[in-house]
Amino acid sequence: MPYLNVTHPNQDVLNLHFVDTGFKDPTAPGATVVLIHGWPLSHRMWEPQLEALYQAGHRAIAYDRRGFGDSSKPWSGYDYDTLSDDLHALLEALDLKQVVLVGFSMGGGEVARYIARHGEQRIAKLALLGAVTPYLLKDESNPEGVDGSVFEQMLDGVRKDRPAFLAPFGKAFLNWSEEQPSVSPEWLDYNRIIALFASPHGTLECIKAFSATDFRDDLKRIKLPTLVLHGDSDQTVPFEVSGKRVTEFVPHAQVELIEGGPHGFNLTHVEHTNRQLLDFIKA
């Protein structure tokens, strides 16, 4: 199981777990794609995409954010500056270049903050999938955002009974009901189990980070080809307050909607998601 040791000033050594498929045919390599998972999951959410990217000839790398999956679970460092520095450490350690950087939900924030802090030298293209960018929280400068009470309720739910909170959240994540199951009951349970093994503290701190971090200035720095892929039925990060607004700051971004797609459309609309990603990589 590969790990990367990451050390930031005034912090303990962090072990970041990652999966690296390598190239199916090293003599004819495709693109290198780095996948950043959403909250409160891990690299395991990318299972359908890792296989598709590998079979298409690309090298796919998915890592677990600090506090999640098989990475270390420290009690600090859940701000986006530190999280994007973790990503930078991974790219540097593996000496990755011409990367297609793909961020899902919370991971979209890491994509934007990475560009702002570390530039585009190692990156070829960007993809924001169901991402929290440009800025979720409603305030005087962002009247289109989500009322802060929504995030306070999430924090309260996690503090009081995290397992009980995650069960209905997981269903909303996938727009799942017994009458109309969007994935199998087993996959629904699998997602919940992934989330249960996340750091409780990291789970809380990341709600604060993705809800209140403003990425508008970060997005303005993006000059690379950018794909915005979003479900039009997203109940968790609604398109109107997120993906739809990215072009205000990245005018050249390519925006694609997945009809009937919930927040977790990469699991419910696997073929559509994979086709959009592969076409974008190839273009």
From TrEMBL:
One Pfam family here: Abhydrolase_1
Cited InterPro entries: AB_hydrolase_1 (IPR000073), AB_hydrolase_fold (IPR029058), AB_hydrolase_sf (IPR050266), Epox_hydrolase-like (IPR000639)
Keyword Hydrolase: yes
Domain of life the protein comes from: Bacteria
GO cellular component assignments: membrane
GO molecular function: hydrolase activity
UniProt keywords, alphabetically: Hydrolase
Coiled-coil ranges (or none): none
Domain named AB hydrolase-1: residues: 32-269
Family from the record: Belongs to the AB hydrolase superfamily. Bacterial non-heme haloperoxidase / perhydrolase family.
Name listed for the protein in its UniProt record: AB hydrolase-1 domain-containing protein
